[in-house]
Amino acid sequence: MSLFAMSGQVAVVTGAGRGIGEGIATMFAEAGAAVVLAARRAEEVERVAADIRSAGGRALAVPTDVTDDDAVAALADAAVAEFGALTCWVNNAGGSPVRTPLRELTRAQWNDTIALNLTSVWVNCVTAASRMDTGSIINISSRAGFVGVPGSGHYAASKAAVNSLTQTLSLELAPKIRVNGIAPGAVPTEIMMTALGLDDQSVTRLADNIPLQRLGTPADIAAAALYLASDAGAWVTGQTLIIAGGR
Amino acid sequence: MSTPTHDELFSLVGDVAVVTGAGRGIGEGIAHRLARAGAAVVCAARRTAEVEQVAADIRADGGKAIAVATDVTDNAAVEALAEAALAEFGALDIWINNAGGSPVQAPLVNLDPDEWDATLRLNLTAVWVCTRVAAARMRDGGRVVNISSRTAVSTTPGSGHYAAAKAAVNSLTQTFARELGPRIRVNCIMPGAVPTEIMMTALRLGDDDLPNLERRLRLPMRRLGTPDDLGAAVLYLVAPASSWVTGQVIAIDGGMA
After folding, report:
1. Is the ipTM of this complex over 0.90?
2. What residue ranges define each of the domains in chain B, with the CATH number in brackets?
């Protein structure tokens, strides 16, 4: 269906080596986009790119640390060099390896979290926009950005700030570039398991508190990204969709 | 869980949808969009000639549609509408609460109490009634989408009654999502400046005002919205693509400062 098609688009997805980023890249490729997969671990993005190519899609893996400004510029240039344009950028890389109350958090831990989850989004957005004629940017934040999350206040704060960044950038980059966000709820990725201190048993109980009675999947988030990135979302900017099963 | 294919994500084949206020404007755009995705569509609005025309257009386009003239503020008529969907197409899966309007503009201090009551009846109470009538008849996996308005979260002097009704629809969306989940998903769209009769009346604008209206309204995307922009958003919210989305209120407004 053309409304939700990505044919003719070139999309960069950061954090594409696994989880939600892998899901977005795979669905975008199936919808017709050429995708550029970025993540720190080379073997993971190479595997995802190979999977996409073996399914008939177009994909390029570019190992990238999104907190390294030069690497981000090189990533954007690689997309343009390989596929001739840049029309979509998904800021999905992020994480929260440290789980601790704010009063016990060290300054270094705070700085690392902000650098990875917030500052990198600003740098990535600006880098992408400077190379886009028209297109869209999608920032993956978190439902944690709207609520208190004991033990992950640093992560929650960084994601709330990303939601704000999405709004300002949507105004500064309109009308050529649309900027939207997605705030995933309980999608049992490695990041979420760590941020909430969950194990395999406790994570399944989470579904009991979700109105739709199930955990999310990378495909749930990818389908929302597809809506925002395709022609279907052509008049949508500055929005952050909460994809969380109703919580 | 296996990942659905791209086509499956946005297909409504096998679904039966009711769209209220389907005689023109946004509702007409939604009805066409759902029909093109494969749904059988029941087009409802007060004016018989208009819904008959929309249904005929959908059928001429190769889709499935019937028209049922309906006043959504009449509880018995709403029940008859739901029953007509079941009688004609054998099921009910999707209900779009799009009917609404605000013919009278006045500062809240001057507003006629009867006008207040009429505005709430049409824009709020009808959404509550329609949703419970629909929910009682829907198959598992049903979806409701309410069309409120960007004015629910901003301010339009002279339309305070309409804005209050729409803000209440946003709230109703969240409560219904909790009460009807996981069997039925309930979401809401807040259209921004889509130059329908309702918007033009609310802003006291005429056709002469249309050129450059996007500049006067300072729309970041520098264009007015179209019924199809809203139709695409509704399609996302009723399609398998959004199967983990409920209770959300989304502004489709071309960006707003």
Report:
1. no
2. 6-251 (3.40.50.720)
